[in-house]
Design goal:
Chains A, B: This is HTH tetR-type domain-containing protein. Chains A, B: One of its GO terms (molecular function) is DNA-binding transcription factor activity. Chains A, B: Keywords: DNA-binding, Transcription, Transcription regulation. The structure is a homodimer. By secondary structure, the first copy, chain A, is mostly helical. Chain A folds into two domains: 47 residues, Orthogonal Bundle (Arc Repressor Mutant, subunit A); 129 residues, Tetracycline Repressor, domain 2. Chain A is elongated. The termini of chain A are far apart.
Chain lengths: 204, 204
Amino acid sequence: MTLTSSAPKRENTDDRRRAIASAARQLIAEKGFEGLRTRDIAARVGINVATLHYHVPTKEALIGLVAGAMREDFRAQSLVRPRAHLSPSERLEHEFYDFQEMFYEQRDTLAVMSELMERARRDEVIHTAMRPILLKWHQMVAAIFVDGVADGSFRADLDPEAASSMFIGALVGFGRGPDTSPQYFERLCAELRRAVRVQTPTRN
Amino acid sequence: MTLTSSAPKRENTDDRRRAIASAARQLIAEKGFEGLRTRDIAARVGINVATLHYHVPTKEALIGLVAGAMREDFRAQSLVRPRAHLSPSERLEHEFYDFQEMFYEQRDTLAVMSELMERARRDEVIHTAMRPILLKWHQMVAAIFVDGVADGSFRADLDPEAASSMFIGALVGFGRGPDTSPQYFERLCAELRRAVRVQTPTRN
DNA sequence: TCGTCAATCAATCACTTGATTGATAGATCG
DNA sequence: CGATCTATCAATCAAGTGATTGATTGACGA
């Protein structure tokens, strides 16, 4: 007889913590931090609240766990993409593509990021976990602009760091803007390209 | 003897509601929505919790009140500034200035806006209250770009709406970025100016 | 002066929520 | 088998937390 079905599971702490972090992430995406309840997380994992507290002692630790998992995800993802060999313009296109993919196919991730960033204002633990992610993104984009200015793909008077802020701000802001259709995203991308690219001077 | 000092005040509902909205706004700025408690609001106004509920029946209504007051503030402020007579470039500079002023001198307002926008995702009431503010801002900036393209101040291939999203996103994103110093804000502004302005063609 | 009503508060309710306790079942090892 | 450790849960606690109740106070009109 199969002893598989509905046998009371006993997982090790690592797996449980992963499952808990995942469930917590889903719930944050659904209801925000305000609506995050330990009972809900336990229910979604399929364990008792006490068991949850056995693996993750406090709610603060839980939030730290989510933030850490998030950071780990981003770090892992950025390692998968070696793009130094591409041209600045191509790398910029990849940034567009990555964001679009995240926005339309991993909406949860973006929503949780947003919640975490908001909470980072008041929560030192989260702030510490989130800051490297943001910095990394800024650095990556700024590096693209530095290279692009050097090889003449972009405007010579481009300020790489400021342009990076503008670029990232525009993308993130897209998600909060009035029109989040793919068509409008493309218009925004086109505008960003024109904003940094060398102008074909408007000759009369 | 003076019956003035510490006489138990009795205000009318309009004044009380205003005071409650103001206190709630402060507390949201301080602790976020997550930390907003009716008791704290009542304490800050200097009234009993029951009195607060007498004037504002539910917490939901309270949040709606804050959102409404916020919208009213913005609407009033935009009426005070008649700028149609200015040039597109000048109007753009005013946008920079207004944002800078809000960022550095009314940080509360911006923090609450941010909280409200985040919550608007899940709260229809707030979404309805916030959307007009965002739309208005977008329209204002887009109108600047339309005029600027028409009179040749800005690039001919500028997409006013997309540029407006980029512009607003960049400003809002500044507040979340790694460097929020006035110096860096000025660099961002400069970059935004170059992004929309007609290029002085890089002649060799 | 008396009745009515808006405004207020102390006390309390009903429910939520993070966390703890004490006990139990399975695994692991000697 | 027996000791011990890990993982689990039912039950419960203590501190909130939004909201209500019943009574009180003062203003104002009749």
